[in-house]
Amino acid sequence: MRLIDDLRAVVGEAQVLTGAATAGHARDWMGKYRGAPVAVVRPASTAEVAACVRVAAAHGAAVVPIGGNTGLVGGTMTDGGVMVSLERMNRIRAVRRDARLVVAEAGVVLSRLHDAAAAEGLYFPLWFGARGSAMLGGALATNAGGSNVLRYGSTRALCLGLEVVLADGRVLDLMGELHKDNSGYDLRDLFIGSEGTLGVITAAVMKLVPAPLAQATATVALRSVADALVLLHRMQAATGGRVEAFEFMPRTYCERLQAVRPDLGLPFAAIAEVTILVEAATTVPAEAVADAGGLIPLVGQLERELAALLEAGLIEDAVIARSEAQRRAMWARREAAAELCVGLEPAVDTDLCLPLDRVEPFLTEALRRLEAMDPGLRSLTVGHLGDGNLHFTLLPTRGDAALKDRVLEVVEDVVVAMGGSFSAEHGVGLSKLPSMARRKDKVALEVMRAVKAALDPEARMNPGKVIPR
After folding, report:
1. Which residue among 337, 365, 380 closes a domain?
2. What distance in Å separates the CA atoms of residue 29 and residue 336, rounded to the nearest whole number?
3. Does residue 264 lie within any of the structural domains?
């Protein structure tokens, strides 16, 4: 009770949740993980976060940061720790139009950053389905990716500066606004992707880019991933590298979409082996102003390229969005991915990244081995093909832990053999600790443990996550 009283003295009684009041924070949104925090504390400033961390340190309590709680790997679960919710740290401190940056606190929901950038004629290019609830701090803590990584990079590539509360309550001010700074170790990147195991991210300086003046969006039916890569490279060449998204929806995904969300429709009468959502965008006025016939030049480029590929037999069919409503309908099919996975049990979820030319060989070989090991096993795949990221969900015939672990090991075997990673954009959390222990370079793990020990010698910052024992 002294811990609770000391936390209340920092933030006020109403901002310290205990018992049943913690339920909304202690359960992840997929319902896979349920924790039991001793308290959820909701500070409203960096100073209050620092004070709460010092209180936890004085009582020897673990500290687990939480943002929008949209994670998929159990990264915010705790039994007996203090959850530090950043939800009240939701101020956009500044939007600097000429510097093309935004300064925001960790609890700002991503969609608010999109709106704030748009108000200045700019764009914040971190874009994924949970943008209406995911918060900036969580995106940084997991180095989130999304649909626009192909053109703009993941969260790490968009960050210029950070503010972090360390394990002892000191505030590390790395809030630089520079694109170049060679003054020693890059500490900023050390905290991005660390999932709260080294400190609590409280604010950041993020890059903004010019807002698109026009977009060209299409859904394309193809026979194979190899053909899809031809499409990608042709589109990049035709648009001068302006492809922002290249989303992969194979047959299994579209079949599940038809069963679960028939209201969203399907783009083609027959389901193709490979369906691609491709979108290019331009900030060049000459490419964005409609001609006398009402055709936007960038859309015309897309149309001509698709027509040539259709004539050459490299694609089977294509639908081009002629309005914003049609574009949104195309994206709705892709962004239903999380909803399609709800209720699929038993399931083994993986989040992989591969070199582009290894994606199709991976799928072929992994499914061959898995089906031989567990006849009747099914799969559901969706991904950001432009950067080689697959969300590869396996549905084994039984739910016992031993079979699930064997399924995961088969996937890891093939991923590693093909030069890929078993963790692309969702983080490690609890879910991928076995994979880290089996597959991460041993020297890399030793270095990670040394960094953790240096910054968090008592191992109180989000303990048990990311780094296997």
Report:
1. 337
2. 15
3. yes
Average pLDDT, the chain: 95
How far are the Cα atoms of 217, 231, 267, 309 from residue 320, in angstroms, in the given order?
Answer: 6, 14, 10, 14
pLDDT on residue 123: 97
Report the amino acid identity of residue 409.
E
Of residues 342 and 113, which shows the higher confidence score?
113
Phi, psi of 222 (to 5 degrees): -135, 170
Same domain, 179 and 274: no
Query: What is the H or E stretch that residue 324 is in?
Result: helix 324-335
What is d(CA 460, CA 464) in angstroms, rounded to the nearest whole number?
A: 9
Strands (E), 5-124: 16-17, 39-41, 63-66, 82-85, 92-96, 101-105, 122-123
Least Cα distance to 282 among 331, 210, 218, 205 occurs for 210
Read off the pLDDT of residues 393-409 as tens digits, 9 standing for 90 and up.
999 999 999 999 999 99
Q: Give the end of a domain, one of 85, 108, 134.
A: 85
At 28 the pLDDT is: 83
Give the domain range for residue 320: 214-337
Task: Report how many domains make up the chain.
Answer: 4
Can you name the residues that pair with 200 across neighbouring β-strands?
A: 165
